[in-house]
Design goal:
Number of helices: 0
Shape: globular
Radius of gyration: 13 Å
Largest sheet: 7 strands, mixed
Distance between the termini: 40 Å
Length: 118
Amino acid sequence: QVQLQESGPRLVKSSQTLSLTCTVSGGSITTSPYDWMWIRQSPEKGLEWMGAIKYMGNRYYSPLFASRIDISRDTFENQITLQLNSVTPEDTAVYYCARDDNYSMIDWGQGTLVTVSS
C-alpha cells in the first residue's frame, strides 16, 4: 500500500519561500504511469491543484502558480518536493501531496497546514 507523508515548516513569513517534502513509501515515484501532485485547500479558495511531476520526471504546473512554483524529486529518497516562492498570507492553506493514475488521485497524504504570516 502506497503511503504519502507531507513535511516541512508550518509557519512561513511573507515574501519567503514555502518548501514542503512528500515522502512516499510502499512504491517508487518512478513507477509508470503515476503522476505525483501537490494540491492545497483553504476556506477562501477551496481545493486548488498546483502542479505535478510525472514518473518520468516531466513537470507541469497550474497557470495560477507557474511563475513561482517548482516541483522536484529525489528518486533515491523517494521524495517529491514543493517550493512556492514569494508567498503571501493568501497562500495559507492545507497542502497535500497525492498520487494520480491518470484517472483520479488514488492516494493522498494527510495534509499539512502552512500559515504565512504578514
